[in-house]
Design a protein that fits this description.
It holds the Pfam family F420_oxidored. Helix content is 44%, strand content 7%. α1 packs across α3.
């Protein structure tokens, strides 16, 4: 039994003057932002791990059928290797979420921070913690920027020469627009979630649970769904659009024919169904070539050619062929929400779907 639990004198609100209580909502908003940020980053990593596992299995199957076992890819090159720059509050919470909820093996996660000695908790788990941003970027294929906006220009200058074209940079620095980040890094494979906060909201984010525990609570997890407006924090759905095109880029880097890529997308995003989908399979969405590229490009793309390489910053700033479907297709929204919750181990029915809302497309 925790004798200090719920002790009034240890609560955040204790001692705050009555006239200052009106600002307490900022505590709930801050916690909600961290929970949503960690949830969406975790979901993205789950997708990448599932994609890599699927690609590895299908490649191995083809090798077994053709007898070309020597062509099986190097496991180390095919693993998701995650680097976190910044060991503050957000960096630590993100690391815990990725370790416990994806889960990412400790040997596939590294943290670069100015105070690695403060990360003893993670070093005991076998995670390498150090202060060498270029070294981290040279090793990882997914980098999370969990640093202060004021530190970002210096960090970008350190790492830009080490960034491989296929390395995905995922930025939490809300004060740095994605167009500016593109210039600082001289890189286009960037994801930057943008959150819009509303003034009047019901604080559902709690105060005492660890982030990882909060994301295992069904009500909290549903509030983090990409299309949900619960808790007063709305995700700009252009982030989800960027996620799709980031996965297209991964497949393009492997020179995968576009028809094969579409098959992987359907398996990755549309493999979880509602009960009525079995009765009416025609109602389930399926991705087509024209969903991602314009009609002119579609006509000139031979069956064996891969998708082009996409500038993810442009995807998140401008309209794409996929924009309208992602924002207006209720069938697609329902299936993506179902997949999101299922990836965290929570089952949904259509009646439990969260309220759909979309943030402003401005960046």
């Amino acid at each position: 039994m925790d004798l200090l639990e719920d002790l009034e004198s240890l609560q955040f609100e204790y001692g705050i003057q009555e006239e200052d209580c009106s600002w307490l909502y900022l505590q709930g908003r801050s916690r909600g932002l961290v929970i949503k940020a960690c949830a969406h980053a975790t979901f993205f990593c789950k997708l990448l791990c599932n994609l890599r596992e699927s690609l590895r299995e299908k490649h191995t199957s083809r090798c077994l059928l053709t007898g070309l076992l020597a062509d099986t890819p190097d496991d180390d090159d095919d693993e998701l290797k995650v680097g976190i720059i910044g060991g503050g509050h957000l960096g630590k919470q993100l690391a815990r979420a990725l370790l416990q909820l994806v889960p990412i093996p400790a040997e596939n996660l590294r943290i670069s921070t100015r105070r690695p000695e403060a990360l003893d908790e993670f070093q005991k788990l076998g995670i390498q913690c150090f202060y060498h941003n270029p070294y981290l970027v040279n090793w990882a294929n997914l980098i999370f920027l969990c640093c202060l906006p004021s530190q970002l220009p210096t960090i970008c200058l350190e790492i830009q020469a080490r960034l491989e074209k296929g390395c995905i940079v995922y930025s939490f620095a809300a004060a740095i627009p994605i167009a500016r980040l593109k210039l600082l890094l001289n890189h286009t494979n960037i994801l930057r979630p943008q959150y819009q906060c509303v003034e009047d909201f019901v604080n559902i984010w709690g105060a005492n649970k660890e982030i990882t525990a909060a994301l295992q609570d069904p009500a909290t997890l549903q509030a983090t769904c990409p299309y949900s407006s619960a808790g007063g924090i709305i995700l700009n759905i252009k982030w989800l659009e960027g996620v799709f095109y980031a996965i297209l880029n991964i497949c393009t880097a492997k020179d995968m024919p576009h028809l094969q890529v579409l098959q992987h997308l359907n398996e990755l995003f549309l493999s979880v169904h509602f009960e009525d989908c079995e009765k009416d399979g025609a109602s389930c969405p399926k991705f087509q070539l024209g969903d991602f590229v314009n009609q002119v490009y579609t006509k000139n793309l031979s069956q064996k050619r891969p998708f082009p390489w996409f500038d993810l910053t442009a995807v998140q700033l401008k309209e794409t062929p996929f924009s309208q479907q992602l924002s207006t297709s209720t069938a697609l929204q329902d299936h993506l929400t179902l997949l999101y919750c299922d990836s965290f181990g929570i089952s949904l029915t259509k009646k439990q779907q969260p309220v759909v809302s979309r943030g402003s497309p401005s960046q």
